[in-house]
Amino acid sequence: MGRRSGILEFAVLGLLRESPMHGYELRKRLNTSLGVFRAFSYGSLYPCLKTLVANGWLIEEPGSAPEEALAATLAGRRAKIVYRLTAEGKERFEELLAHTGPDAWEDEHFGVRFAFFGQTSRDVRMRVLEGRRSRLEERLEKMRASLARTRERLDDYTLELQRHGMESVEREVRWLNELIESERAGRDQRDGPTGQDRSQEQERDRSPELDPSGEQDQSGDTGGLPRHRGGSRPDPSDDTAK
């Protein structure tokens, strides 16, 4: 299975895990929620759906009342079909969700994987984020080396374009650093021997501990997302951030 069809399978199974949908609804969600599929067509979606049905991961159900389906048949129209995830399909999605290999870090795949982070375990999220950061740091190093070698031969506009590309990658690396920091903070709080109980006691006593500098500790679980400290987070599916 190719990379494109593999990530499409993952996205379709993930969306159908939320709720059953017919083809038009699926295509709309792929276009609006997952930016990598903005230029997506039915010509690619329906073969994927048929394959998933043949594998036993989806089932097809009538999408309207029986009388409406009959009316559509008599009128020569195709009745709507709703696709529903099977138990085997849920297991397949869980298997794909746990995958943390290099494909999960690539430009096209990472945006889709990130869209389903809410259903992904913390350890898997950490591995994907750290892998993505490592990949971008390697790319950034190559971009800097290339610019150093060629900048004397570039005109002003090409040079500015190169700088813009580097800044986009640097911005995503900073964003990933914030996400990784928050994931680690959440894990430390969860795994700490007295973290949760101590927080509850402090709330009851209204006497929060102070750190050595005398300031109140502001750490806490942010659900895997960093506290926003100004600026905008890059869209993982934005081509300019790759």
UniProtKB/TrEMBL annotation:
Matching InterPro entries: Metal_resp_DNA-bind_regulator, Tscrpt_reg_PadR_N, WH-like_DNA-bd_sf, WH_DNA-bd_sf
Keyword annotations: Coiled coil
Pfam families the record matches: PadR (PF03551)
Record's protein name: PadR family transcriptional regulator
Coiled coil: 126-167
Claim: Nucleus is one of the keywords in the record: no
Region of interest (Disordered), residue spans: 184-242
PANTHER family reported in the protein's UniProt record: CONSERVED PROTEIN, PADR-FAMILY TRANSCRIPTIONAL REGULATOR
Organism: Streptomyces milbemycinicus
Domain Transcription regulator PadR N-terminal span(s) in chain numbering: 12-95
Ranges of compositional bias, category Basic and acidic residues: 198-209
